[in-house]
Amino acid sequence: MRFLEEIEWEELKKAVYHSSLGNRDFYKLALVGDAVLNLYLVLKFYDKANLEEIYAMISEYKSNKALYYAVEELNLKELLVANSNQVSDYIYASMLEAITGLIYIKFGLEGAFKFLEEEVFPALERNRGKFRNYWEELRKREGGKIRVSFYEENGEFVAEIKIKDGVFWGRGKNKKEARNEAAKNALLNK
Fold it and tell me: Residues 168-189: pLDDT tens digits?
């Protein structure tokens, strides 16, 4: 990653050493990075959608799950230094926001936007199928006329979605993931 190569390790530590290790800058930088990412996405989607769709896309692309997949694809996971019991998708997402915040402070808005455009956004796009909110798309299409039920099977949640066109199932580690997978199956089998 070109931008990270231009940052000294002592400076980069502010964005990759978690607050559980006493780093007071981690979440402050993440806050800045979150704001920069939000502005970038608003401008990115501004001419491509209406207001409601812009909010939905920003919510998807800024989700912890989406940012985690970007961290994974960009091979940034090994940069995180944290207590092992602190590591989660949320912490990895926060680290990417902190890195974005650090790049903003060091290179300005133009540099941060270039980092997001050239490195982060393409990784998000390539992984969109993993974090896309199919449930909201289905709800919008069906006008709220959806019945959902859940059950557990072999340690996983199973969602069953009933709509006028049929019944669709999805599995996941939690109800939200299972519901989203079922909604994906409903949308893709139309």
Answer: 999 998 998 899 999 999 998 8
| CATH, range 2-131 | 1.10.1520.10
The per-residue b/e assignment along 33-68, b for 16 or more CB within 10 angstroms, e otherwise, is: bbebbeebbeebbeeeeeeeebebbbebbbbbbbbb
Q: Which CATH number fits domain 134-188: 3.20.20.70, 3.10.20.90, 3.30.160.20, 3.90.1150.10?
A: 3.30.160.20
Please state, in angstroms and rounded to a whole number, the distance separating the CA atoms of residues 11 and 23. Answer: 12
14-35 residue pLDDT tens: 999 999 999 999 999 999 999 9
Q: Name the pTM for this structure.
A: 0.81
What residue ranges do the domains of the chain occupy?
Answer: 2-131, 134-188
